[in-house]
Write a structure and sequence with these properties.
Layout (H helix, E strand, L loop, with lengths): L1 H6 L6 H8 L31 E5 L6 H12 L3 E3 H11 L2 H11 L6 H17 L5 E4 L5 H10 L4 E6 L2 H10 E4 L5 E3 L3 E3 L8 E3 L6 H4 L2 E2 L6 H24 L3 E5 L4 H11 L4 H9 L1
Parallel strand pairs: 1-3, 1-4, 2-3, 4-10
Antiparallel strand pairs: 5-6, 5-9, 7-8
Bound molecules: adenosine monophosphate (AMP).
Adenosine monophosphate binds next to helix 4 and helix 5.
Amino acid sequence: MAAVIRLFRPSSSPFSLIRRSLSTAAVTEPVKSQTYPQNHLPPAVDPKGRNVQWVFLGCPGVGKGTYASRLSTLLSVPHIATGDLVREELNSGSNLGKQLADIVNQGKLVSDEIIISLLSKRLEAGEGKGESGFILDGFPRTVRQAEILDEVTNIDLVVNLKLPERVLIEKCLGRRICNQCGKNFNVASINVKGENGSPGISMAPLLPPPQCVSKLITRADDTEDVVKERLRIYNDKSQPVEDFYRGQGKLLEFDLPGGIPVSWPKLLEVLNLDEQDEKQSVAA
Ligand code: AMP
């Protein structure tokens, strides 16, 4: 609770908190507004010597975590998912966590002030460990959050992952997490026929290894009603964020063609990250 109250003090506004956390990240010249057709993306590492500062947008269940985490390994930058920060707070049993539980379990958004406070703390902790650059997942989720982020640092690229709504619901309902190792799996076998000129989508289940099978849990907010509410809120509050970055020419739209085996190589291709980079990162 104290953290929330602190945010409303003028000397420690969300702006100053996040600005402090990002102070060593590039507050460099603004990135020129441009669109990113395939093959004209910024290089993975900025010529000025800093690591990438990317944002992943997309509806709940689209796979932001999966692809952001793979890219973070490839590019050696932290993958920071605000949903994970919220769940850590819920699991910590703190007063703030208790206060957030109802909001999250109903599929609603946590206030901008609270989410910025959690993100600032995570960035500060990373700064202490010498982290630089980031791939943000699940932030910003409101135009206000995007504006605050814009005031304190330069985002290089915003990847907007897309899947049809029917697939998103099936994916959320099939999602399982191992409560020991924390890895995400999916038991859904998705086979959605093409409609109105858009192609069909098939995704094989992503099954856990034997040691995780008895430890699988389902997120409390992955029930059908709550997923539908989260999608409604995404369309209402987060889609305007797409427009915000589209207006800045930073939005890369990516329609996922299927599961990881087909989507990952395609994503690397549109990001101009070739297979060689991937092999080096796997070998490292
Ligand atoms: P996620 O794992 O990204 O689906 O996030 C889980 C929940 O955490 C969301 O449904 C929200 O309640 C909360 N949350 C995560 N990120 C944000 C954000 N940027 N703004 C507000 N609430 C958030």
